[in-house]
Amino acid sequence: MSVHTMETLSLFNNAPYQRDFSARVIAVVDQAVVLEHTLFYPTGGGQPGDTGYFSLPDGTRINVTGTVRDPLLPSIIWHQVEQCPPHLCTGALLNASLDWQRRYQHMKMHTCLHLLGSIINAPVTGCSISADKGRLDFDLPEMTLDKESITDELNALIEQAIPVSTLSMPASEYPALLQSTGSKTVKPPVIQGDLRMVEVIGIDIQPCGGTHVQNTREIGRVFCEKIEKKSRNNRRVILRFE
């Protein structure tokens, strides 16, 4: 199969809580594997790519150390592996499992950062997520932020057990949406001409391709660890789980 005709069906958006799946290999190049479909989220939007492992029918275990989209053909998702056995080839059927605890931490923090963006009235210029912390950068010239206030407001929203849902809208509506959303730099996720939106019901709605929890209470308690001045117009807010 030509690389130009390959495409990986993304399962993670519709099944963010599913941890295991089976799939056939459609390409193997060096230490990277493409599957016909995958639950592994590829690095993007500040969220790291998933890790985990593949299991072959003969019992061989292959550790997946990262997941990325092809830089030229983003419909292709590459699973970076620790060591690719010689007998792993196109057409092989394998079982795959996520490092679920790591992924779930990413889901919780990603949703928490959407809450953070909703309580700070400034455009978002950067984002980063890890298993134990996350941060947003804001276009905010004046130092008006307070760690204790941010911590209190976030935990109050989390405790409300607010539902989180996804929806789609025509990509043509994105310019108008920019007037009411906080992100200045994130390229909106367009799927077959539609924008994928993530909504914390009644609190926030943003274009987002990441994985999220279904309810804010799943996040658990967090605290604002630090507020940094990165430049004259940039403030970085760092959150951690308690």
Structure description:
By secondary structure, this protein is an alpha+beta fold. It folds into 2 domains: 3-98, Elongation Factor Tu (Ef-tu), domain 3, CATH 2.40.30; 102-241, Threonyl-trna Synthetase, Chain A, domain 2 (Threonyl-tRNA Synthetase, Chain A, domain 2, 2-Layer Sandwich). Helices cover 15% and strands 38% of the residues. It is built from 3 helices and 16 strands. The chain has a 6-stranded antiparallel β-barrel with strand order 2-3-7-6-5-8. A 4-stranded antiparallel β-sheet has the order 9-10-16-15, with helices on one face. It is elongated and about 60 Å long. The relative contact order is 0.17.
Which strand order does the major sheet show?
2-3-7-6-5-8
Estimated helix fraction: 10-25%
Structural class: alpha+beta
Helix/strand order, N-terminal first: EEEEEEEEHEEHEHEEEEE
The number of distinct β-strands equals 16
- Specify the CATH architecture of the largest domain: 2-Layer Sandwich
